[in-house]
Amino acid sequence: MAYNRKAFSNLPQAPVAARKPQTDTRHGLTRTDDYAWFRADNWQAMFKDTSILDPQIRSHLEAENAYMEAALGDTAELQKQLFAEMKGRIKEDDSSVPVKDGPYAYGTLFVTGGEQPHYFRTPRDGGERHVMLDGDKEAAGKDYFRLGGLGQNSDHSHGIWGYDDKGSEYFTLRVRNLETGDDLADVVENTSGGGVWAPDGKSFFYTLQDENHRPSKVFHHIIGQPQSADRLVYEEKDPGFFMGVGGSLLDDFIFIDIHDHETSEYRLLSTKDLTAEPMLVAEREEGVEYSMTEGGDVFYILTNDDDAKDFKIVEAPVTAPGKENWTETVPHEPGRLILSHAAYARHLVWLERRDGLPRIVVRERATGAEHAIAFDEEAYSLGLHGAAEYDTDVIRFSYSSMTTPSQLFDYNMATRERVLLKTQEVPSGHNPDDYVTRRVMAPAHDGELVPVSLLYRKDTVLDGSAPCLLYGYGAYGVTIPASFSTNALSLADRGFVYAIAHIRGGKDKGFAWYEDGKMEKKQNTFKDFIAAADHLVKEGFTSFDNIIAEGGSAGGMLMGAIANMAPEKFAGIIAAVPFVDVLNTMLDDTLPLTPPEWPEWGNPIESEEEYNWIAAYSPYDNVANKPYPPILAISGLTDPRVTYWEPTKWVARLRATAPEAGPYLLKTNMAAGHGGKSGRFQRLEEIAFEYAFAIKVAGKM
Asked: Boundaries of each Peptidase S9 prolyl oligopeptidase catalytic domain copy (predicted)?
C-alpha cells in the first residue's frame, strides 16, 4: 500500500452520513445518490445568512471538522512552526510601488500584524502617503472580509470600493471621498465586485449578480440616487454567459464583455452619450473569442477568429469596429500563444508564450519595429502590468522563478531601458543558490510530453527517497506559472521536491494543449498528471509511496479522478474546494456556474454522449472499493463556485464504499467561501495546515 497507515493510528469513529437515496433518470440511465440531501434547499439564501443552514447538515459538517481535528491534532505544533516560517518570509509592513495616474500615484500597503491591504496615494512624483482606505479598519469585527479594490474617478476626488463580508462573492459597493475618507450615502448591493466610473466622475457602471449568482445585468448608478433608481444598460438573457464591465485608458468607452469559456461578445457604450444603447461589435459566434483595447482612432482586438487557434491581433476603426472592418496587425503563428495585449499612444504590447515560456513583445505603432523582453532560466514567470495612462512610453512588468524572488521593473519601450523598482524581500533570508529549479518533460500515454517544473534544495538526495508535493490544475486554459513561492520553501527545506505538472487543460503549450484537455478529451488531464508522477519516480526524484498530490477547485476534480484511476501511486491527496460531483452539478442548471461551464465539460442535460463523457470520470460517481490513500478535502460553506455539498458527499461516499482505506478527512470553513479565509496571515495558516498534512503523510514530522 502506498499510503502511510501508521500516520493515522488510534483515530476516533468517523462520522457516518445518513443515506437518503434519491434517483435520477437521464437518457434512459438511472443513478442513485445516497447523499443528495446535503444540498440545502435554501442554499441561495444561506449564502447570505449561514444561520439558516439545516441543523442536520450543520451537525454533520461540525462532526467532520471534529474528526479532522482529531486526525491532525498531532500536527498542531508543526502547523505553528510552518506558519512562523511562512510569516517570517513576508515583509509585514510591505507596500507596492505606486502607479502614476494624473496628479497622484496609487498603491497598497500592509502594516505589521495587519491582515488586509490599505489603499494609499502620494503626489505623482513622490511625497507623503495619504491612506484612502484602511482594510483592517473596515474588516474589524467580521469573521470574513474581502476587499474588491478601490477605483478613483477622473478628477481623483472620489473612489468606488467594494467588499464581501460573507465569502459568497456578493459584493457591496460604496463611494468614498478620497480626501476625507468618508463614505457617501450610496450603497449598491449584490454586485460582482467593482464599478467603472463615467468620465464626469458623477456616476458609474456595475454588474449585478442575479438570484442564481450570475452577473446578468449592467446598471448605471448616479451618485446620490438609490440603487432602485439605477438604469438597466444591458441584460444578458442567456444563462450560459458571464458578463463584466470595464473602461478604457482614454475614458472614451465603457466595455461590456460577455463570454463563456469559448465564445465572447463585446458591446460598447460611448461616454459621450451615457443614455445610448450599447453598440454590438461582433455578434457571438460559437468558438470565437475576442477582447478589445483602445488605441486612439483604432481598437486593437485579440482574437482566434478564422481558425487562429493561438490568437492574432487585428485592428478596426473606432467609428466602425465591426468584424467586416477587422484587418490583421499581428498574424497568427502556430505555437505562439498570445495571452493578452495593451495599447498606448506610441506602442502596442502583448504577452505571448512560446515553447512553454512567456515573453513580452513591444511594437512601435509608427514603424512596426518589434523587440522582445525575455529571460534565460529553464522555467520562470512573467507578468505584464502595463500602465494606468495612455500617453506613456513606460510600462511595468514582473519576473520571478521558483528560486528567484519576484522583481518589478519599469520598462521604457522607446529607449529599452529597464529599471528595477523592487525585489521581493524575504526577511528571514533566502539564498537562491541553495535551491535548484528545473523543467523536465514527462512522456504521456499518447506520446505527448508534459512539462513539469521542479524546486528542491541542492543537497536533496535524488534516489527516490525524497517526498514530493505534486501540484496540478488543468482546466479553463489556466497556466500555473513557475513563479517564486515563499511557502514552498518550507517543503523544500524539509527535503521535499515541489513539483508543478503543466498538464493538458491549461495553455502551457499553446491553445491546442487546452483543447486536448476539455470536453471529450478531459481524461488526458488526469492521465497527464499520473504520467508526471510516473516520470518523477522513474527519474529518481521520488517514489510512489512519497508523492502527495494537491489541487484545488477544478484541480480538486483532478485529485478525485486520479484517486479513482491510480490510488496506489499517491501517498496522500489534498483536494481544496474540489469540484468532484461533476455530473450532478452539470445537470443542475440553477447552480451559478453550470450553464457557462457546459462548453468546458459538456451539457449532460441535452446530450447523452456528453452525459457519458462526464459519467466516465466524475470522481463522485466513480468511487469504488479501492486502496485510496489518506485524503484531505477542504471546502467553504458559502462557496458559490464549488458548493460545500460536493466534497461533503464525496467524503461520505468514500468512507462508505472503501472503509478500509483512507482515512478521509473533511475540513469545512464555516465562515468562508471558495478562496478560503481572506486575511493574508489567515491564508498562511490554511497553507500551513495543508502542508502539515503532507508532511505527516510523508512521515517527516
From this structure: 483-699
